[in-house]
Amino acid sequence: MLLAATIVFLALVRSRRFQLAIGTQYTWALLETDLVWMIGTGLLAVGIILVISSFFALGFYGTYLGDYFGILMEEKVTCFPFNIVGDPMYWGSVLEHLGIALQSASPSGLFLTAVVASMYIIAMQFEGPFTSKIYAEKALEESKKTK
Question: Where on this chain does S-adenosyl-L-methionine bind (predicted)?
Fold first, then answer.
């Protein structure tokens, strides 16, 4: 529970720091158009949908604790949004940041979004194979039990 609270707290801190960073920087006139703002709003909405639907698909424990503490689902989740995009929480978060950066016409927001995306891509290189491995091990264990 402490790990989950820490993850949520740090996500809130990250979001707030992101808002403060882009709110104090200059904007690009090139991005200050209604079209860019609407694209940003659309990306933000899609990002929120991915993050929230991922949470509902995984539940609290699956989202924050499952893989790392051996609390696994019956099988790897493949329903929406996991059937649309791999790692929807990560990509949803990136889309949220990108949407806010575009709505704010913020070049620093675009840069910070690229940093966040880079960190998530690195994390996905480890998390994806780890998740696949533990579910494969679980399936192997269950097949041994049924024999």
Answer: 45-47, 127-128
Tell me how far apart the alpha carbons of residues 55 and 49 are, in angstroms, rounded to a whole number: 10
Output the known binding site: 45-47, 127-128
User: Beta strands of 44-128 (E only): which ranges?
Assistant: none
Mean pLDDT score, 111-138 = 89
The ranges assigned to domains in the chain are 2-146
3-class state of residue 33 by DSSP: coil
What token pair was written down for 28? Answer: 């690009």
Residues 48-74, buried b or exposed e (16+ Cβ, 10 A)? eebbebbbebbeeebbbbbbeeeebee
Binding site, annotated residues for S-adenosyl-L-methionine:
45-47, 127-128
- Report the candidate in 89, 90, 111, 87 with the shortest Cα–Cα distance to residue 101: 111
